[in-house]
Amino acid sequence: MSIEIKVPQLPESVSDATLVAWHKQVGQAVGRDENLVDLETDKVVLEVPAPAAGVLSEIRIDDGATVTAGDVLAILSDGEAGVAAPAAEPVPEVGSAIESAAESRPESSNGTGKSVKTSPAVRRLLEEHDLDATMVPGTGKDGRITKADVMAFLKVEDANNVTPGDPAPAVIDDSDAVLALERREQRVPMTRLRARIAERLVEAQHTAAMLTTFNEVDLTEVMSLRSRYRDPFEKQHGVRLGFMSFFAKASIEALKKFPVVNASVEGTDIVYHNYYDIGVAVSTDRGLMVPVLRDVDQMSFAEFEQALVDVAEKAQKGTIGMEELTGGTFTITNGGIFGSMLSTPILNQPQSGILGMHTIQQRPMVVDGGIVPRPMMYIALTYDHRIIDGREAVQFLVTIKQQLEDPGRLLLSV
After folding, report:
1. Cα torsion at 339, 343, 346, 351 (round to 10°)?
2. Suppose 134 and one of 110, 117, 163, 388 were both cysteines; which one would form an S-S bond, judging by CB atoms 3.0 to 4.6 Å apart?
């Protein structure tokens, strides 16, 4: 009996997906619920598990192809695994030395057991110059040799093999050879996630009247509080006490005082939200994601920290769901973990405000008439000036500053 492996129903508002990579080859045995292939949408990577145990008898769609819900990806059959057929070649990266996707890539060998995949065009070039493919460093995908690699190698050979009496090679010396190897370009298509990020950032620039206001926060009291209770907190709750929970709680208090910052624009209407779903920007290998933590105002510090760890881990692994990436009312981003001193974050549409945290730096501050070192952080609020006035934006940051410089306010909601 054969089973068709189809593209599952895609998340709402997603029309198609890109087939990223097959995890099984034709002829290989597959266990029930074992992941066969990854599909990348604008937001998440979907896994397609095997509905039953069997053998992957046919792959119908190759890596890099665009698919829609219901498309047949492969055929799963009963029986024992056979000899695996060669996996479908991945779509080549686009570049200055791109080879035709239709060209085959047999392997060349010098008899040492080392094999190198080359295209017909590259093989012809190697033959013309009597070169061994295994001697040429490949910069293509999976170590493949490109025409640019061969030409750079030839320049190095010419530079290193000039015999006495031969005319010096024109403008080719050791530095030229090094430059030939270094001055390369590689053109690769954006991933669907990166393309979507770019689209949304440009959309935000063109849609909202964005403006950023700044302030600075003395984190002496927060750091002292964390130092005193960090170990018992982690021991009791099983999660680390980070700075993000303090900023999230301070943001909630500020949002309650200035609800327009928690609002969004729909046409000519202002939509006020009486709930606080906070997006937290997370950097992943695939790009920036903003998982949303629901009803943060009802969470304890420990619940917030645990929820943040959970969604960040999912984002890093690519297992986060679409529902966890949509519907936020306000966003916090922490560029400080990368050393950012100051920045102007871009709104996460259709939200009207985003708080930017930055690196903590010891700076001399005047306190009670004396100069003392204090752990200071610049904070930034980018807001939609269509509905938020400068006065509200400034007072919003002042409220956050007050909450963090006197953390007791967070317990008393003052």
Report:
1. 90
2. 110
Enter the pTM of the model. 0.64
36, 50 contact by CB (below 8 A)? yes
Catalytic residue among 33, 132, 295, 389: 389
- CATH number of the structural domain 2-77: 2.40.50.100
Number of neighbouring beta carbons within 10 Å of residue 86: 8
One digit per residue, the tens of pLDDT, for the chain of length 414 reads 788 999 888 876 677 888 888 888 888 898 888 888 888 887 677 888 898 899 998 898 888 888 888 899 999 888 655 444 444 444 333 333 334 333 333 444 444 444 565 665 667 678 778 888 877 887 765 667 777 778 778 776 665 554 545 554 444 455 555 555 566 777 777 777 788 788 888 988 888 999 999 999 999 999 999 999 999 999 999 999 999 999 999 999 999 999 999 999 999 999 999 999 999 999 887 788 899 999 999 999 999 999 999 999 988 888 888 889 889 999 999 999 999 999 999 999 899 999 999 999 999 999 999 999 999 999 999 999 999 999 999 999 999 999 999 998 887 766
389 catalytic, yes or no? yes
Q: Which of 23, 237, 273, 385 is catalytic?
A: 385
Let me know if 237 is a catalytic residue.
no
CATH 4.10.320.10 fits 107-182, yes or no: yes
The reply to whether CATH 3.30.70.100 applies to domain 192-412 is no
**Lookup: tokens for 5:** 């492996």
The residues spanned by each domain of the chain are: 2-77, 107-182, 192-412
How far apart are the C-alpha atoms of 328 and 316, rounded to whole Å?
19
